[in-house]
Design goal:
The complex is a heterodimer of chains A (289) and B (306).
Chain A: H1 3-6, H2 18-51, H3 70-73, H4 81-112, H5 118-130, H6 133-146, H7 157-181, H8 185-193, H9 198-227, H10 230-235, H11 242-250, H12 256-288
Chain B: H1 2-7, H2 31-57, E1 61-62, E2 70-71, H3 77-84, H4 87-118, H5 123-131, H6 138-148, H7 154-161, H8 174-184, H9 186-199, H10 202-210, H11 215-226, H12 228-244, H13 247-252, H14 260-269, H15 275-300
The chains are: A mainly alpha (289), B mainly alpha (306).
Chain lengths: 289, 306
């Protein structure tokens, strides 16, 4: 009977030595500690971009030379910076709307219908995602230069939008498809049992339920379009988007104004994502009550 | 790829029913074709047709004396040139992309693991943190790496101080290129692994411990196999863009010893008369990557990818 009190682990009085405690604590928190390190690593270049937006630099913005507010006071001072930003926003907006609409229709067809050629459609949607951007850019360049130019469409804003819609489309389809697949079909069956017409069922029940997926897909499409450089570089001609502006500028030193714009877009996007999260968790908690 | 899509779903939504029964009958009608038509047309005109044209260009010949002009031909020498003259570039692309994919896996796994099992209510915040840096333009972040890894920068300074940097430089070396590739495609590794770990039942992992497996054994025999679909999707999503990339090489790499992406880019945009060989290079790259994807999908099934 006396032996039970001596089992060290069960005893509340058991105290591992200091080194052992540190070792245990590290083992328990290894994943979370390395996760924090990885997150710091992810943010390091963003921090650099932010810090160097205050650099009072000369010709190149590579070495720290002194603090100044002047780049934040007028980020459009550098020729082409804000013009390219506006182009990127326009391209992103148009591509997002078109790709989201077309992609949602495709996702509905892929999940809700049986039809001849479904497997082929699946491959057609998948292959653009598995194709390196440089190949898509090169292919688009050849068709635009050797084909479309003959019918009066030359490289520029239009060709950028055409290309962006194409590479955003597949990502929209898989995102919306996942959302539709995860819906409980009994909700729609219930609507039909209550004498809703197919159109009513779709617009009053299905569509609101897949809307979060559609919005997520739209955000993904916009960020893909806004940050694309490789394909854009091939099909843009003399038109400049923000990533292209930064890349061209990097040859002779990126002006700190580009850091200002890049960091501001980062802050805006983060606020938008956090806002969306807050709204969706509010909605979720409202449903539960 | 569906594991990526899964991640973008909003957690805790009551309408989402992960174990919902499949609909009894899928509808069969012409509506499906009407819904598909615009998207399929778009992919046909802006994906398939350009690839057909690229294939045609890869067999064209130069017009002698007129740089930038080509005539229709079946000139397979372009492919010969692509495979012989540029074999080292292909090798470098696949080597650097492979290294970057492996490093991204090593870095991404603990993060995905912590998000799935340790983060608790911080999970959504961590998710935002993973994606957030990627809202700063990727060129700006790569340029920031060129500052961080520069000779005057912190990394080179510390390593030089410790005499751990034999060549004295990181920037403009292949090491910097691999570092840049690893960084740039990291979320494509984190998100699918996280998605498959999140679907795993933590009780199965606990059972490993109950059966007297130590932490590492449990990880190797239970956790890792359960996350394999995510790992596979992640390796593809990281390797494919890394193998075709030229920006990291351009901003961080050496002057000589480029990757195949740089050659394609320069031949198309800077070298007059470079179209046919560049097109042959593009096609070879695409064929190599699609063959890899095909083998992968054959080996591990398509459900998790499409």
């Amino acid at each position: 009977m006396t032996t039970t009190d001596q089992t060290p682990v069960a005893s509340p009085a058991y105290r591992p030595s200091g080194a052992k405690r540190v070792q245990l604590w590290l083992a328990n928190h290894f994943a979370i500690l390395s996760a924090i390190l990885v997150l710091l690593y992810l943010f390091l270049p963003v921090a650099y971009t932010f810090a160097f937006s205050f650099n009072d630099h000369g010709k190149t913005n590579i070495v720290w030379q002194g603090f100044t507010w002047k780049h934040w006071q007028d980020p459009c001072r550098v020729a082409g910076a804000c013009e390219s930003l506006v182009t990127s926003l326009q391209v992103g907006a148009i591509s997002t709307v078109v790709a989201t609409v077309l992609g949602t229709l495709m996702a509905l067809a892929m999940v809700r219908y049986r039809f001849r050629g479904k497997a082929a459609s699946n491959v057609l949607i998948f292959v653009p995602m598995a194709t390196p951007e440089i190949v898509m850019g090169a292919a688009l360049l050849t068709i635009f230069v050797q084909g479309f130019a003959n019918v009066g469409i030359s490289l520029g804003f239009t060709t950028i939008v055409f290309a962006h819609i194409m590479f955003c489309l597949s990502f929209v389809v898989v995102t919306v498809k996942a959302r539709i697949q995860s819906l409980d079909p009994r909700i729609e069956e219930a609507a039909q049992d209550l004498y809703a017409s197919p159109a009513q069922t779709f617009w009053k029940v299905t569509f609101p339920l897949i809307l979060p997926g559609i919005l997520g897909a739209a955000m993904l499409a916009f960020s893909l379009s806004f940050d694309d450089f490789i394909i854009t570089n091939f099909v843009s001609g003399n038109e400049s988007t923000f990533p292209k502006f930064v890349y061209v500028a990097s040859r002779r030193g990126i002006p700190a104004e580009a850091n200002v714009i890049g960091f501001s877009m980062f802050v805006l996007a983060v606020l938008l994502v956090v806002g969306a999260q807050v709204v969706s968790s509010l909605r979720a908690s409202r449903y539960k009550e | 790829m569906s594991s990526l899509a899964q991640v973008s779903q909003v957690a805790g939504d009551p309408a989402v029913h992960p174990t919902a029964p499949a609909p009894e009958t899928e509808k069969r009608s012409w509506t499906a074709y009407l819904l598909l038509l615009p998207g399929v047309l778009w992919l046909g005109v802006f994906f398939i047709l350009p690839l057909v044209q690229l294939a045609a260009v890869s067999l064209q010949s130069r017009f002698p004396g007129f740089p930038g002009y080509y005539y229709r031909d079946l000139n397979f020498e372009n492919y010969l040139s692509a495979l012989t003259d540029y074999a080292p570039h292909f090798a470098r692309s696949f080597l650097y992309a492979g290294l970057a994919t492996f490093l991204a896996f090593v870095v991404a796994y603990p993060l995905a693991y912590a998000m799935a099992f340790k983060a608790g209510r911080w999970r959504n915040l961590m998710m935002i943190c993973v994606v957030a840096p990627f809202f700063t333009s990727f060129i700006l972040r790569t340029f920031a790496w060129s500052q961080i890894l520069a000779d005057e920068g912190p990394v080179a300074a510390v390593l030089n101080f410790l005499h751990l940097l034999p060549g004295g430089h990181i920037i403009n070396t292949p090491v910097a290129v691999v570092a840049g590739l690893t960084y740039n495609f990291l979320p494509f590794m984190v998100l699918p692994i996280y998605a498959s770990l999140e679907r795993a039942d933590p009780r199965v992992i606990e059972a490993g411990g109950d059966l007297y497996a130590n932490g590492f054994t449990t990880f190797r025999t239970v956790t890792l196999p359960m996350s394999m679909p995510g790992v596979l999707a992640g390796t593809l999503l990281t390797f494919i863009p890394a193998a075709g990339d030229f920006v990291n090489m351009e901003l961080l790499g050496p002057q000589r010893g480029k990757m195949v992406g740089n050659v394609i880019n320069d031949q198309f945009l800077a070298v007059p008369g470079g179209y046919p060989v560049a097109a042959a290079l593009s096609f070879t790259l695409m064929a190599a990557i699609l063959a890899m994807v095909f083998l992968y999908v054959r080996r591990f099934g398509t459900d998790e990818l499409v």
